Amino acid sequence: MLIGPNSSKIIEKLCPQINLSETSFPLNFGRKICLGHCWVEAFHKNYFGEIGWELLHPLLMQNTLFDLIFDFGDEFGIKPFGVYAANSMAVESSYRQIKHELTPDYNLWECGLHSHVDDFTDNNRDFPGKNSLIYLKNKERWKFITLEVFGVENVDARGGEPIFDEFGQKIIGRVTNGSFGWRINKSLALAMVNPKFAEEDTRVKIKILGRLYSAISIHENPFEAQKSSFK
Hints:
This protein is an alpha+beta fold. It has three domains: 2-80, 2-Layer Sandwich (Gyrase A, domain 2); 94-103 and 142-229, Beta Barrel (Elongation Factor Tu (Ef-tu), domain 3), CATH 2.40.30; 107-140, no CATH class. Strands 5-8-7-6-9-10 form a six-stranded antiparallel beta barrel. Strands 1-4-3-2 form a four-stranded antiparallel beta sheet. 24% of the residues lie in helices and 30% in strands. The chain contains six helices and ten strands. Residues 154-216 form the Aminomethyltransferase C-terminal domain.
């Protein structure tokens, strides 16, 4: 993955003949291109709140491609990042992930992915599970929310922590993923809760390593919201 505001500039330097305009290479579009002397399947995606690229390549060319990208990206201050940084950015953007929210425990409506599902359930195209998915619409047992956690110092929610009402007496849900958001300087948690407690600005408690911390439900995708406030 190549992510960041200058990611497309690096692609253009490695493949100057490619047209990366929005009409020629729109978001969520992919095609085979040559970067330097390495052919890749390039997919233009939005990762973790930043425009980026997924580059599928032959394994034997991995080191070559890595070196090419870093050589051409040096002028843009390119840096590597690891999976913990990736998860932090995903949480800042309220991204649902496999093994966290996208599991057999929750359906797509409960994950808040209505805009991704409506087109498939409203048309005449059939697919396995369509009738069950339609039946489950508006029958959510859980609701996906984003929480800002207060008072933490050396810990953050990671997933699996119980969520209580604001008095710390009744369990109302659980954390599905969490991290400190380094770009917005906040401790965050993604969670599935009883729909009665899913309204924005609802105050709750999260038990992390045996201690209750106060939290509040905030607007989805806090990273994008903070970026917008700077414009």
